[in-house]
Protein backbone atom coordinates (compact mmCIF):
# COMPACT_ATOMS: atom_id res chain seq x y z
CA UNK A 1 0.00 0.00 0.00
CA UNK A 2 1.25 3.43 -0.86
CA UNK A 3 -0.15 6.94 -0.46
CA UNK A 4 1.09 9.95 -2.39
CA UNK A 5 0.05 13.32 -1.03
CA UNK A 6 -3.43 12.22 0.01
CA UNK A 7 -5.95 14.20 2.00
CA UNK A 8 -8.52 12.19 3.91
CA UNK A 9 -11.96 13.41 4.80
CA UNK A 10 -15.66 12.68 4.83
CA UNK A 11 -16.83 15.70 2.93
CA UNK A 12 -15.54 17.42 -0.17
CA UNK A 13 -13.69 20.58 0.73
CA UNK A 14 -13.39 19.59 4.39
CA UNK A 15 -10.28 17.45 4.79
CA UNK A 16 -9.31 16.18 8.23
CA UNK A 17 -6.01 17.96 7.82
CA UNK A 18 -4.68 20.53 5.36
CA UNK A 19 -1.26 18.90 5.11
CA UNK A 20 -1.32 16.04 2.57
CA UNK A 21 0.19 12.75 3.73
CA UNK A 22 2.39 10.17 2.02
CA UNK A 23 3.48 6.78 3.23
CA UNK A 24 4.48 3.37 1.97
CA UNK A 25 3.91 0.02 3.64
CA UNK A 26 6.11 -2.96 2.70
CA UNK A 27 4.45 -6.15 1.45
CA UNK A 28 3.95 -8.99 3.88
CA UNK A 29 3.86 -6.67 6.89
CA UNK A 30 1.57 -6.91 9.88
CA UNK A 31 0.73 -3.25 10.13
CA UNK A 32 -0.84 -1.61 13.14
CA UNK A 33 -2.92 1.43 12.26
CA UNK A 34 -2.81 3.57 15.36
CA UNK A 35 -3.95 6.97 16.54
CA UNK A 36 -6.34 8.67 18.91
CA UNK A 37 -10.09 8.64 18.25
CA UNK A 38 -10.93 10.90 15.33
CA UNK A 39 -7.41 10.77 13.93
CA UNK A 40 -8.59 9.35 10.61
CA UNK A 41 -8.07 5.61 11.06
CA UNK A 42 -11.59 4.64 10.02
CA UNK A 43 -11.53 7.17 7.23
CA UNK A 44 -8.34 5.61 5.88
CA UNK A 45 -9.87 2.13 6.04
CA UNK A 46 -13.07 3.36 4.37
CA UNK A 47 -11.00 5.05 1.70
CA UNK A 48 -9.01 1.90 1.12
CA UNK A 49 -12.15 -0.16 0.48
CA UNK A 50 -13.53 2.55 -1.81
CA UNK A 51 -16.31 3.72 0.47
CA UNK A 52 -14.84 7.22 0.67
CA UNK A 53 -12.71 8.79 -2.01
CA UNK A 54 -9.45 10.59 -1.35
CA UNK A 55 -9.98 14.33 -1.47
CA UNK A 56 -6.58 14.93 -3.00
CA UNK A 57 -3.63 12.82 -4.11
CA UNK A 58 -3.42 9.13 -4.99
CA UNK A 59 -3.80 6.03 -2.86
CA UNK A 60 -2.41 2.78 -4.25
CA UNK A 61 -3.10 -0.80 -3.27
CA UNK A 62 -0.93 -3.48 -4.89
CA UNK A 63 0.17 -1.01 -7.52
CA UNK A 64 -3.36 -0.06 -8.53
CA UNK A 65 -4.91 3.26 -7.73
CA UNK A 66 -7.74 2.56 -5.30
CA UNK A 67 -10.39 4.58 -7.11
CA UNK A 68 -9.79 2.65 -10.33
CA UNK A 69 -10.20 -0.78 -8.72
CA UNK A 70 -13.54 -2.26 -9.73
CA UNK A 71 -15.87 -3.65 -7.09
CA UNK A 72 -15.31 -7.10 -8.55
CA UNK A 73 -11.53 -6.79 -8.39
CA UNK A 74 -11.65 -5.39 -4.87
CA UNK A 75 -13.36 -8.57 -3.68
CA UNK A 76 -10.32 -10.59 -4.74
CA UNK A 77 -7.85 -8.24 -3.03
CA UNK A 78 -9.28 -7.10 0.27
CA UNK A 79 -11.45 -8.58 2.96
CA UNK A 80 -12.48 -6.99 6.21
CA UNK A 81 -13.49 -7.85 9.75
CA UNK A 82 -15.42 -4.73 10.75
CA UNK A 83 -15.70 -3.34 14.23
CA UNK A 84 -19.46 -3.67 14.45
CA UNK A 85 -20.99 -6.80 13.01
CA UNK A 86 -24.34 -6.95 11.38
CA UNK A 87 -25.87 -10.22 10.31
CA UNK A 88 -29.31 -11.80 9.92
CA UNK A 89 -30.24 -12.92 13.42
CA UNK A 90 -31.40 -16.36 12.38
CA UNK A 91 -28.35 -17.18 10.26
CA UNK A 92 -26.31 -20.29 10.99
CA UNK A 93 -22.52 -20.19 11.14
CA UNK A 94 -21.98 -22.37 8.08
CA UNK A 95 -24.26 -20.17 5.99
CA UNK A 96 -22.45 -17.05 7.12
CA UNK A 97 -19.14 -18.59 6.06
CA UNK A 98 -20.56 -19.48 2.67
CA UNK A 99 -21.24 -15.79 2.05
CA UNK A 100 -17.47 -15.48 1.60
CA UNK A 101 -17.97 -17.23 -1.75
CA UNK A 102 -20.50 -14.67 -3.05
CA UNK A 103 -17.97 -12.95 -5.34
CA UNK A 104 -17.09 -16.31 -6.92
CA UNK A 105 -20.76 -17.20 -7.41
CA UNK A 106 -21.71 -13.89 -9.01
CA UNK A 107 -25.45 -13.62 -9.49
CA UNK A 108 -26.19 -16.93 -11.11
CA UNK A 109 -23.59 -19.59 -10.34
CA UNK A 110 -24.18 -21.83 -7.32
CA UNK A 111 -22.16 -21.19 -4.17
CA UNK A 112 -19.95 -24.04 -2.90
CA UNK A 113 -20.84 -25.65 0.41
CA UNK A 114 -18.53 -24.94 3.31
CA UNK A 115 -18.88 -28.54 4.39
CA UNK A 116 -17.20 -29.90 1.27
CA UNK A 117 -13.86 -31.62 1.73
CA UNK A 118 -11.65 -28.87 0.30
CA UNK A 119 -12.45 -26.49 3.17
CA UNK A 120 -12.20 -29.06 5.92
CA UNK A 121 -8.53 -28.52 6.88
CA UNK A 122 -9.06 -24.78 7.17
CA UNK A 123 -12.22 -25.18 9.29
CA UNK A 124 -10.35 -27.51 11.60
CA UNK A 125 -7.30 -25.32 11.92
CA UNK A 126 -9.59 -22.47 12.97
CA UNK A 127 -11.40 -24.83 15.42
CA UNK A 128 -14.79 -24.07 13.90
CA UNK A 129 -16.12 -27.58 13.29
CA UNK A 130 -18.43 -27.72 16.36
CA UNK A 131 -19.74 -24.22 15.66
CA UNK A 132 -20.86 -24.77 12.06
CA UNK A 133 -24.49 -25.79 12.68
CA UNK A 134 -25.07 -23.21 15.41
CA UNK A 135 -27.10 -20.03 15.11
CA UNK A 136 -24.84 -17.01 15.07
CA UNK A 137 -26.92 -14.96 17.47
CA UNK A 138 -26.46 -17.51 20.26
CA UNK A 139 -22.64 -17.48 20.27
CA UNK A 140 -20.27 -15.57 22.53
CA UNK A 141 -18.62 -12.47 21.14
CA UNK A 142 -15.26 -14.30 21.06
CA UNK A 143 -16.66 -17.14 18.97
CA UNK A 144 -18.48 -14.69 16.77
CA UNK A 145 -15.33 -12.66 16.16
CA UNK A 146 -13.47 -15.81 15.12
CA UNK A 147 -16.26 -16.69 12.71
CA UNK A 148 -16.21 -13.26 11.11
CA UNK A 149 -12.46 -13.65 10.76
CA UNK A 150 -12.98 -17.02 9.10
CA UNK A 151 -15.50 -15.49 6.69
CA UNK A 152 -12.95 -12.85 5.73
CA UNK A 153 -10.24 -15.51 5.27
CA UNK A 154 -12.40 -17.79 3.13
CA UNK A 155 -12.65 -14.88 0.75
CA UNK A 156 -8.97 -15.59 0.05
CA UNK A 157 -7.73 -11.98 0.24
CA UNK A 158 -4.28 -10.52 -0.27
CA UNK A 159 -4.91 -7.87 2.34
CA UNK A 160 -6.87 -8.54 5.52
CA UNK A 161 -8.23 -5.47 7.30
CA UNK A 162 -9.05 -5.87 10.99
CA UNK A 163 -10.86 -2.95 12.59
CA UNK A 164 -10.08 -3.02 16.32
CA UNK A 165 -10.57 -6.77 16.32
CA UNK A 166 -9.92 -7.56 19.97
CA UNK A 167 -11.85 -4.64 21.40
CA UNK A 168 -14.67 -6.53 23.07
CA UNK A 169 -12.80 -9.73 23.78
CA UNK A 170 -11.43 -11.19 27.00
CA UNK A 171 -7.70 -12.13 27.04
CA UNK A 172 -8.35 -15.78 26.18
CA UNK A 173 -10.67 -15.01 23.26
CA UNK A 174 -8.28 -12.32 22.15
CA UNK A 175 -5.33 -14.70 22.02
CA UNK A 176 -7.43 -17.39 20.28
CA UNK A 177 -8.40 -14.84 17.68
CA UNK A 178 -4.85 -13.73 17.05
CA UNK A 179 -3.63 -17.29 16.89
CA UNK A 180 -6.13 -17.96 14.11
CA UNK A 181 -4.88 -14.91 12.22
CA UNK A 182 -1.29 -16.08 12.59
CA UNK A 183 -2.07 -19.63 11.52
CA UNK A 184 -3.48 -18.30 8.29
CA UNK A 185 -0.69 -15.78 7.83
CA UNK A 186 1.86 -18.59 8.09
CA UNK A 187 -0.06 -20.47 5.41
CA UNK A 188 -0.65 -17.73 2.86
CA UNK A 189 1.59 -14.80 3.78
CA UNK A 190 -1.15 -12.21 3.42
CA UNK A 191 -0.78 -8.55 4.36
CA UNK A 192 -2.55 -7.45 7.50
CA UNK A 193 -3.72 -3.99 8.40
CA UNK A 194 -5.12 -3.77 11.90
CA UNK A 195 -6.39 -0.72 13.71
CA UNK A 196 -5.79 -0.92 17.43
CA UNK A 197 -5.40 1.12 20.60
CA UNK A 198 -3.60 -1.60 22.50
CA UNK A 199 0.09 -0.58 22.62
CA UNK A 200 1.31 -3.72 24.40
CA UNK A 201 -0.48 -5.98 21.93
CA UNK A 202 0.84 -4.03 18.96
CA UNK A 203 4.41 -4.13 20.30
CA UNK A 204 4.18 -7.89 20.71
CA UNK A 205 2.45 -8.89 17.48
CA UNK A 206 2.92 -6.31 14.72
CA UNK A 207 6.02 -5.38 12.78
CA UNK A 208 5.04 -2.12 11.11
CA UNK A 209 3.35 0.96 12.54
CA UNK A 210 1.27 3.54 10.69
CA UNK A 211 0.18 6.22 13.15
CA UNK A 212 -2.18 9.08 12.38
CA UNK A 213 -3.00 12.10 14.44
CA UNK A 214 -5.56 14.81 13.54
CA UNK A 215 -5.72 13.48 10.01
CA UNK A 216 -2.04 13.83 9.32
CA UNK A 217 0.78 11.32 9.35
CA UNK A 218 2.39 10.94 12.76
CA UNK A 219 4.65 7.96 12.20
CA UNK A 220 5.27 5.35 9.51
CA UNK A 221 7.99 2.77 9.97
CA UNK A 222 9.16 -0.45 11.62
CA UNK A 223 7.82 -1.21 15.07
CA UNK A 224 11.24 -1.16 16.78
CA UNK A 225 11.79 2.40 15.69
CA UNK A 226 8.37 3.47 16.92
CA UNK A 227 8.74 1.99 20.36
CA UNK A 228 12.31 3.21 20.78
CA UNK A 229 11.42 6.80 19.94
CA UNK A 230 9.31 9.44 21.66
CA UNK A 231 6.52 8.74 19.15
CA UNK A 232 5.08 5.90 21.17
CA UNK A 233 4.75 8.18 24.20
CA UNK A 234 3.32 11.26 22.51
CA UNK A 235 0.85 9.59 20.13
CA UNK A 236 -2.01 9.57 22.60
CA UNK A 237 -1.10 12.73 24.52
CA UNK B 1 -31.53 -33.45 6.52
CA UNK B 2 -34.24 -33.49 9.15
CA UNK B 3 -34.88 -29.77 8.90
CA UNK B 4 -34.95 -30.03 5.12
CA UNK B 5 -37.76 -32.58 5.37
CA UNK B 6 -39.70 -30.32 7.69
CA UNK B 7 -39.32 -27.42 5.29
CA UNK B 8 -40.45 -29.57 2.38
CA UNK B 9 -43.54 -30.78 4.25
CA UNK B 10 -44.41 -27.23 5.29
CA UNK B 11 -43.98 -26.07 1.71
CA UNK B 12 -46.21 -28.79 0.26
CA UNK B 13 -48.85 -28.22 2.92
CA UNK B 14 -48.79 -24.48 2.21
CA UNK B 15 -49.22 -25.01 -1.52
CA UNK B 16 -52.02 -27.51 -0.92
CA UNK B 17 -53.95 -25.06 1.26
CA UNK B 18 -53.32 -22.34 -1.31
CA UNK B 19 -54.85 -24.47 -4.05
CA UNK B 20 -58.01 -24.96 -1.99
CA UNK B 21 -58.57 -21.25 -1.47
CA UNK B 22 -60.55 -20.52 -4.67
CA UNK B 23 -63.25 -22.87 -3.44
CA UNK B 24 -63.74 -20.94 -0.21
CA UNK B 25 -65.72 -17.73 0.00
CA UNK B 26 -69.27 -16.46 0.42
CA UNK B 27 -70.33 -19.97 -0.50
CA UNK B 28 -68.28 -23.12 -0.76
CA UNK B 29 -67.84 -24.51 -4.25
CA UNK B 30 -67.21 -28.15 -5.08
CA UNK B 31 -63.94 -29.00 -6.72
CA UNK B 32 -65.72 -30.63 -9.63
CA UNK B 33 -66.93 -27.15 -10.65
CA UNK B 34 -63.44 -26.68 -11.97
CA UNK B 35 -64.09 -28.79 -15.07
CA UNK B 36 -67.83 -29.49 -14.91
CA UNK B 37 -69.44 -26.71 -16.91
CA UNK B 38 -72.90 -28.20 -17.42
CA UNK B 39 -75.84 -29.16 -15.26
CA UNK B 40 -76.23 -28.01 -11.67
CA UNK B 41 -72.58 -26.97 -11.61
CA UNK B 42 -72.91 -24.41 -14.38
CA UNK B 43 -73.19 -21.34 -12.16
CA UNK B 44 -70.48 -22.59 -9.84
CA UNK B 45 -68.24 -23.12 -12.84
CA UNK B 46 -68.80 -19.56 -13.98
CA UNK B 47 -68.25 -18.14 -10.50
CA UNK B 48 -65.04 -20.09 -10.19
CA UNK B 49 -63.51 -19.13 -13.52
CA UNK B 50 -64.69 -15.55 -13.85
CA UNK B 51 -64.55 -14.46 -10.21
CA UNK B 52 -62.79 -16.72 -7.78
CA UNK B 53 -59.74 -17.79 -9.77
CA UNK B 54 -58.86 -14.30 -11.05
CA UNK B 55 -59.17 -13.02 -7.50
CA UNK B 56 -57.08 -15.91 -6.28
CA UNK B 57 -54.30 -15.09 -8.77
CA UNK B 58 -54.42 -11.45 -7.71
CA UNK B 59 -54.19 -12.45 -4.05
CA UNK B 60 -51.19 -14.70 -4.67
CA UNK B 61 -49.42 -11.93 -6.57
CA UNK B 62 -50.11 -9.26 -3.95
CA UNK B 63 -49.54 -11.38 -0.83
CA UNK B 64 -46.36 -12.97 -2.12
CA UNK B 65 -44.96 -9.68 -3.39
CA UNK B 66 -45.72 -7.75 -0.20
CA UNK B 67 -43.94 -10.35 1.90
CA UNK B 68 -40.89 -10.26 -0.37
CA UNK B 69 -40.89 -6.46 -0.32
CA UNK B 70 -41.08 -6.49 3.47
CA UNK B 71 -38.12 -8.87 3.68
CA UNK B 72 -36.18 -6.68 1.23
CA UNK B 73 -36.79 -3.49 3.23
CA UNK B 74 -35.78 -5.23 6.44
CA UNK B 75 -32.46 -6.11 4.84
CA UNK B 76 -31.59 -2.91 2.98
CA UNK B 77 -32.49 -0.72 5.97
CA UNK B 78 -30.92 -3.16 8.41
CA UNK B 79 -34.04 -2.79 10.52
CA UNK B 80 -36.28 -5.61 11.68
CA UNK B 81 -39.26 -3.27 11.92
CA UNK B 82 -39.11 -2.08 8.32
CA UNK B 83 -42.09 -2.87 6.11
CA UNK B 84 -43.14 -1.91 2.59
CA UNK B 85 -45.16 1.14 3.62
CA UNK B 86 -42.66 3.07 5.72
CA UNK B 87 -41.28 5.16 2.90
CA UNK B 88 -44.36 6.92 1.63
CA UNK B 89 -44.30 5.33 -1.83
CA UNK B 90 -47.62 3.60 -1.39
CA UNK B 91 -49.33 6.54 0.30
CA UNK B 92 -48.25 8.66 -2.66
CA UNK B 93 -49.74 6.10 -5.04
CA UNK B 94 -52.97 5.96 -3.07
CA UNK B 95 -53.12 9.74 -3.07
CA UNK B 96 -52.57 9.82 -6.83
CA UNK B 97 -55.21 7.23 -7.57
CA UNK B 98 -57.78 8.70 -5.18
CA UNK B 99 -57.15 12.24 -6.42
CA UNK B 100 -57.66 11.10 -9.99
CA UNK B 101 -60.85 9.31 -9.04
CA UNK B 102 -62.28 12.15 -6.99
CA UNK B 103 -61.35 15.19 -9.02
CA UNK B 104 -61.07 13.84 -12.56
CA UNK B 105 -63.51 10.91 -12.44
CA UNK B 106 -60.88 8.43 -13.58
CA UNK B 107 -62.02 4.98 -12.42
CA UNK B 108 -59.56 3.12 -10.23
CA UNK B 109 -57.89 0.12 -11.81
CA UNK B 110 -57.83 1.73 -15.27
CA UNK B 111 -54.47 2.33 -16.96
CA UNK B 112 -54.95 6.09 -16.57
CA UNK B 113 -55.43 5.70 -12.85
CA UNK B 114 -52.31 3.55 -12.63
CA UNK B 115 -50.49 6.31 -14.51
CA UNK B 116 -51.51 8.84 -11.89
CA UNK B 117 -50.33 6.55 -9.12
CA UNK B 118 -47.04 6.03 -10.91
CA UNK B 119 -46.61 9.79 -11.40
CA UNK B 120 -47.01 10.48 -7.68
CA UNK B 121 -44.78 7.53 -6.80
CA UNK B 122 -42.03 8.77 -9.11
CA UNK B 123 -41.87 12.04 -7.17
CA UNK B 124 -41.31 10.07 -3.98
CA UNK B 125 -38.77 7.72 -5.54
CA UNK B 126 -36.71 10.60 -6.88
CA UNK B 127 -36.85 12.44 -3.55
CA UNK B 128 -35.85 9.30 -1.64
CA UNK B 129 -32.88 8.50 -3.84
CA UNK B 130 -31.80 12.16 -3.74
CA UNK B 131 -32.02 12.13 0.04
CA UNK B 132 -29.84 9.03 0.12
CA UNK B 133 -27.17 10.54 -2.12
CA UNK B 134 -27.06 13.80 -0.16
CA UNK B 135 -23.62 15.37 0.00
CA UNK B 136 -22.59 14.18 3.46
CA UNK B 137 -22.19 10.44 3.56
CA UNK B 138 -24.88 7.95 2.74
CA UNK B 139 -26.84 7.53 5.92
CA UNK B 140 -29.59 4.99 6.10
CA UNK B 141 -31.36 6.68 8.94
CA UNK B 142 -31.88 9.79 6.88
CA UNK B 143 -33.62 7.98 4.07
CA UNK B 144 -35.94 6.16 6.50
CA UNK B 145 -36.82 9.36 8.39
CA UNK B 146 -37.23 11.23 5.12
CA UNK B 147 -39.56 8.54 3.80
CA UNK B 148 -41.56 8.56 7.03
CA UNK B 149 -41.95 12.32 6.73
CA UNK B 150 -43.23 11.97 3.16
CA UNK B 151 -45.53 9.20 4.33
CA UNK B 152 -47.16 11.51 6.90
CA UNK B 153 -47.59 14.31 4.39
CA UNK B 154 -49.17 12.10 1.74
CA UNK B 155 -51.37 10.31 4.26
CA UNK B 156 -52.73 13.62 5.52
CA UNK B 157 -53.38 14.83 1.99
CA UNK B 158 -55.18 11.55 1.37
CA UNK B 159 -57.36 12.07 4.45
CA UNK B 160 -58.12 15.55 3.20
CA UNK B 161 -59.39 14.23 -0.12
CA UNK B 162 -61.29 11.38 1.48
CA UNK B 163 -63.06 13.67 3.93
CA UNK B 164 -63.96 15.97 1.06
CA UNK B 165 -65.33 12.93 -0.75
CA UNK B 166 -67.37 11.67 2.17
CA UNK B 167 -69.38 14.92 2.02
CA UNK B 168 -70.51 14.07 -1.48
CA UNK B 169 -72.14 10.84 -2.61
CA UNK B 170 -69.78 8.50 -4.37
CA UNK B 171 -67.86 5.32 -4.05
CA UNK B 172 -66.92 4.08 -0.59
CA UNK B 173 -63.61 5.46 0.59
CA UNK B 174 -62.91 3.05 3.40
CA UNK B 175 -61.21 0.51 1.15
CA UNK B 176 -58.39 2.89 0.35
CA UNK B 177 -57.50 3.24 3.97
CA UNK B 178 -57.35 -0.46 4.78
CA UNK B 179 -56.53 -2.15 1.53
CA UNK B 180 -59.04 -4.09 -0.44
CA UNK B 181 -58.95 -6.81 -3.10
CA UNK B 182 -60.89 -5.75 -6.21
CA UNK B 183 -62.82 -8.14 -8.47
CA UNK B 184 -61.06 -8.34 -11.81
CA UNK B 185 -61.43 -10.54 -14.87
CA UNK B 186 -59.30 -13.51 -15.82
CA UNK B 187 -57.06 -11.79 -18.36
CA UNK B 188 -56.36 -8.85 -16.10
CA UNK B 189 -55.42 -11.18 -13.29
CA UNK B 190 -53.00 -13.10 -15.51
CA UNK B 191 -51.26 -9.91 -16.62
CA UNK B 192 -51.08 -8.67 -13.05
CA UNK B 193 -49.67 -11.95 -11.78
CA UNK B 194 -47.15 -12.04 -14.62
CA UNK B 195 -45.87 -8.54 -13.89
CA UNK B 196 -45.54 -9.29 -10.19
CA UNK B 197 -43.75 -12.57 -10.78
CA UNK B 198 -41.36 -10.81 -13.13
CA UNK B 199 -40.51 -8.15 -10.53
CA UNK B 200 -40.19 -10.80 -7.81
CA UNK B 201 -37.83 -12.74 -10.07
CA UNK B 202 -35.54 -9.70 -10.45
CA UNK B 203 -35.53 -9.29 -6.67
CA UNK B 204 -34.83 -12.99 -6.24
CA UNK B 205 -31.82 -12.75 -8.53
CA UNK B 206 -30.65 -9.67 -6.58
CA UNK B 207 -30.88 -11.75 -3.41
CA UNK B 208 -27.12 -12.28 -3.49
CA UNK B 209 -26.58 -8.50 -3.28
CA UNK B 210 -28.83 -8.46 -0.26
CA UNK B 211 -26.91 -11.34 1.33
CA UNK B 212 -23.85 -9.11 1.07
CA UNK B 213 -25.65 -6.05 2.43
CA UNK B 214 -26.95 -7.98 5.41
CA UNK B 215 -23.37 -8.24 6.69
CA UNK B 216 -22.97 -4.48 6.84
CA UNK B 217 -21.77 -1.96 4.29
CA UNK B 218 -18.03 -2.43 4.59
CA UNK B 219 -18.23 -6.21 4.21
CA UNK B 220 -20.66 -5.84 1.30
CA UNK B 221 -18.21 -3.53 -0.40
CA UNK B 222 -15.29 -5.92 -0.08
CA UNK B 223 -17.56 -8.68 -1.40
CA UNK B 224 -17.86 -6.67 -4.60
CA UNK B 225 -21.31 -5.14 -4.01
CA UNK B 226 -21.10 -1.33 -3.68
CA UNK B 227 -23.80 -0.69 -1.06
CA UNK B 228 -25.09 2.64 -2.31
CA UNK B 229 -25.53 1.40 -5.87
CA UNK B 230 -27.24 -1.77 -4.68
CA UNK B 231 -29.55 0.19 -2.38
CA UNK B 232 -30.51 2.72 -5.03
CA UNK B 233 -31.27 -0.03 -7.53
CA UNK B 234 -33.30 -2.05 -5.03
CA UNK B 235 -35.09 1.08 -3.84
CA UNK B 236 -36.11 1.94 -7.39
CA UNK B 237 -37.22 -1.60 -8.20
CA UNK B 238 -39.23 -2.06 -5.01
CA UNK B 239 -40.89 1.31 -5.42
CA UNK B 240 -42.10 0.43 -8.89
CA UNK B 241 -43.30 -2.92 -7.59
CA UNK B 242 -45.09 -1.30 -4.69
CA UNK B 243 -46.74 1.18 -7.04
CA UNK B 244 -48.15 -1.67 -9.09
CA UNK B 245 -49.55 -3.39 -6.01
CA UNK B 246 -50.89 -0.32 -4.26
CA UNK B 247 -52.68 0.99 -7.31
CA UNK B 248 -54.64 -2.26 -7.38
CA UNK B 249 -55.35 -2.87 -3.72
CA UNK B 250 -54.44 0.13 -1.56
CA UNK B 251 -52.25 -0.48 1.47
CA UNK B 252 -52.67 -3.91 3.06
CA UNK B 253 -51.15 -3.68 6.50
CA UNK B 254 -48.92 -5.94 8.57
CA UNK B 255 -48.37 -8.68 6.02
CA UNK B 256 -45.02 -7.31 4.85
CA UNK B 257 -43.83 -6.99 8.42
CA UNK B 258 -45.02 -10.27 9.92
CA UNK B 259 -44.57 -12.84 7.18
CA UNK B 260 -40.79 -12.47 6.71
CA UNK B 261 -40.31 -12.73 10.47
CA UNK B 262 -42.37 -15.92 10.64
CA UNK B 263 -40.38 -17.38 7.75
CA UNK B 264 -37.09 -16.48 9.43
CA UNK B 265 -38.15 -18.15 12.65
CA UNK B 266 -39.64 -21.19 10.97
CA UNK B 267 -37.08 -21.89 8.24
CA UNK B 268 -33.89 -20.16 9.43
CA UNK B 269 -33.22 -19.55 5.73
CA UNK B 270 -29.58 -19.87 4.70
CA UNK B 271 -29.84 -17.15 2.08
CA UNK B 272 -31.97 -14.22 1.06
CA UNK B 273 -33.21 -16.20 -1.91
CA UNK B 274 -34.60 -18.88 0.35
CA UNK B 275 -36.12 -16.19 2.56
CA UNK B 276 -37.78 -14.72 -0.54
CA UNK B 277 -39.14 -18.04 -1.72
CA UNK B 278 -40.56 -18.84 1.71
CA UNK B 279 -41.93 -15.33 2.09
CA UNK B 280 -43.70 -15.49 -1.26
CA UNK B 281 -45.56 -18.67 -0.36
CA UNK B 282 -46.17 -17.49 3.21
CA UNK B 283 -47.45 -14.11 2.07
CA UNK B 284 -49.72 -15.62 -0.57
CA UNK B 285 -51.11 -18.02 2.01
CA UNK B 286 -51.61 -15.34 4.62
CA UNK B 287 -53.38 -12.95 2.27
CA UNK B 288 -55.37 -15.79 0.70
CA UNK B 289 -56.69 -16.99 4.04
CA UNK B 290 -57.41 -13.41 5.16
CA UNK B 291 -59.26 -12.73 1.92
CA UNK B 292 -61.39 -15.88 2.22
CA UNK B 293 -62.10 -15.00 5.82
CA UNK B 294 -63.11 -11.46 4.89
CA UNK B 295 -65.81 -12.88 2.63
CA UNK B 296 -66.87 -15.83 4.79
CA UNK B 297 -67.24 -14.00 8.09
CA UNK B 298 -70.66 -12.39 7.48
CA UNK B 299 -71.66 -12.99 3.85
CA UNK B 300 -72.57 -11.13 1.74
CA UNK B 301 -70.57 -8.44 3.53
CA UNK B 302 -67.02 -8.21 2.24
CA UNK B 303 -64.69 -6.66 4.78
CA UNK B 304 -61.60 -4.80 3.53
CA UNK B 305 -58.90 -7.46 3.61
CA UNK B 306 -56.41 -5.09 5.25
CA UNK B 307 -58.53 -5.10 8.41
CA UNK B 308 -58.37 -8.89 8.57
CA UNK B 309 -54.63 -9.08 7.90
CA UNK B 310 -53.98 -6.57 10.64
CA UNK B 311 -56.33 -8.31 13.08
CA UNK B 312 -54.63 -11.64 12.38
CA UNK B 313 -51.12 -10.29 11.95
CA UNK B 314 -51.11 -8.00 14.99
CA UNK B 315 -51.55 -10.76 17.59
CA UNK B 316 -49.16 -13.01 15.67
CA UNK B 317 -46.56 -10.27 15.77
CA UNK B 318 -47.05 -9.69 19.49
CA UNK B 319 -46.76 -13.43 20.08
CA UNK B 320 -43.46 -13.54 18.20
CA UNK B 321 -42.13 -10.62 20.23
CA UNK B 322 -43.27 -12.34 23.41
CA UNK B 323 -41.49 -15.54 22.46
CA UNK B 324 -38.27 -13.68 21.75
> CATH superfamily name of chain B?
ABC transporter involved in vitamin B12 uptake, BtuC
Mean model confidence by pLDDT of chain A: 87
**Number of discrete domains of chain B:** 1
Name the biggest interface: A-B, 43 and 30 residues
Topology pattern of chain B, helix = H, strand = E: HHHHHHHHHHHHH
Overall 3D shape of chain B = globular
- Global geometry of chain A: globular
Which regions of chain B have little confidence, pLDDT < 50, spanning 5+ residues? none
Please give the alpha-carbon distance between the first and last residues of chain B. Answer: 26 Å
**Main structural class of chain B:** mainly alpha
Q: What class do helices, strands and sheet pairing of chain A give?
A: alpha/beta
Multimeric state: heterodimer
The major beta sheet of chain A can be summarized as: 6 strands, mixed
Give the % helix of chain B.
over 70%
Task: Please characterize this protein's 3D structure.
The complex is a heterodimer of chains A (237) and B (324). Chain A is built from 10 helices and 10 strands. Chain A is of the alpha/beta class and 237 residues long. In chain A, the strands form 2 sheets. Chain A has a 6-stranded mixed β-sheet, with helices on both faces. Chain A has a 4-stranded antiparallel β-sheet with strand order 2-1-4-5, with no helix packed on it. In chain A, helix 6 runs parallel beside helix 7. The longest helix of chain A is centred in the C-terminal third of the chain and has 18 residues. Chain B is mostly helical and 324 residues long. Chain B has one domain: ABC transporter involved in vitamin B12 uptake, BtuC (Orthogonal Bundle), CATH 1.10.3470. Helix content of chain B is 73%, strand content 0%. In chain B, helix 11 packs across helix 12 and helix 11 packs across helix 13. Chain B starts with a helix and ends with a helix. The model of chain B has no long low-confidence stretch (mean pLDDT 84). The interface between A and B is large, with 43 and 30 residues.
Amino acid sequence: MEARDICLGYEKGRPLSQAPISFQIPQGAITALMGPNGSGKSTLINTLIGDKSVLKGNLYCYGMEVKTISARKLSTLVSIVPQEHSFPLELRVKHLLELAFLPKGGLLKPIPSIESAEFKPMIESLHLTPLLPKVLKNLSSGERQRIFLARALFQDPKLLILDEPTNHLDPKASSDFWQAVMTYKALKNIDILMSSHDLAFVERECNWILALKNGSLFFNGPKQEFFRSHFSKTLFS
Amino acid sequence: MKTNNKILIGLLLGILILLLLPFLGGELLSISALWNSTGPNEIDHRILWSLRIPRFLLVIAVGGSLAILGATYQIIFNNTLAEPYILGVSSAVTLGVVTAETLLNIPTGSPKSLGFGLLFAMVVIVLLILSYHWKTGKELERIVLFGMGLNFIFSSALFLILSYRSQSPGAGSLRWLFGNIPWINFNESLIFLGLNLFLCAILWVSGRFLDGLSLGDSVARTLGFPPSKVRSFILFLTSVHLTLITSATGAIGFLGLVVPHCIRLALRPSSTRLLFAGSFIGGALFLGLSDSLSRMLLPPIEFPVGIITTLLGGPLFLYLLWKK
